[in-house]
């Protein structure tokens, strides 16, 4: 019965508001709910105390972070105020494994909380993870599409300027990071307009096509071919023509055989030759 009640609130689209300042008494009441026994919730919240983590179990904060989406689902969106402070404490934990755990599940928590609470409480944490260690950044990168699709269109466009930063990693040999970026960009094509794709995603795609690791390049070929298809279906044909012309100049007419081979591979992925008549001089 409690779970049915929780799910009812989770799918309720009513607006929710949160207070940013509480008195000590209000702070205590803000942690009170009627879904699970209060003592059980208090015990869970107390386990995120940094001093307890150092004296009892160094892994306890990581376990709490792993369980937090399940706790949030059980309590429901209406009781997020009980977990908000705990979530922020875990998100700023000194152990990168704790932050990494939260980074991998932030998209699931966003589904539970809804767009309003996500924009107010999760987006700042998400932005912090984007600037964290690669071990943490990979968590948000692997589910970048899942998180951004839940945001408002205007908020989503703000991240176009930060996608380029994923090309830079702490270790340049971490090619799987760039491969994951290419995979996510393929999914992100459905979230952005033709102009945004041409202005922001195209330069990243061309950079990935010239990567030193073949696995990254192969995924990038699929990315470029999907990009051409997306721009071809757009109402403005200018973007696909300009993109095809750039492909011809950069790869088809490249003085290196590897560049010309890249053009062939890109065409091979999606039968790109059906778009070539739009380009003059090929």
UniProtKB/TrEMBL annotation:
Transmembrane spans: none
Entry superkingdom? Eukaryota
Q: Which InterPro entries match?
A: ARM-like, ARM-type_fold, PP2A_Regulatory_Subunit_A
This protein's record includes keyword Lyase: no
Annotated Gene Ontology cellular components are: cytoplasm
Q: Which parts of the sequence are annotated with region: Disordered?
A: 11-32
GO terms of molecular function: protein phosphatase regulator activity
The protein's UniProt keywords, in alphabetical order, are: Repeat
PANTHER family named among the record's database cross-references = SERINE/THREONINE-PROTEIN PHOSPHATASE PP2A 65 KDA REGULATORY SUBUNIT, SERINE_THREONINE-PROTEIN PHOSPHATASE 4 REGULATORY SUBUNIT 1
Q: What is this protein called?
A: PP4R1 phosphatase
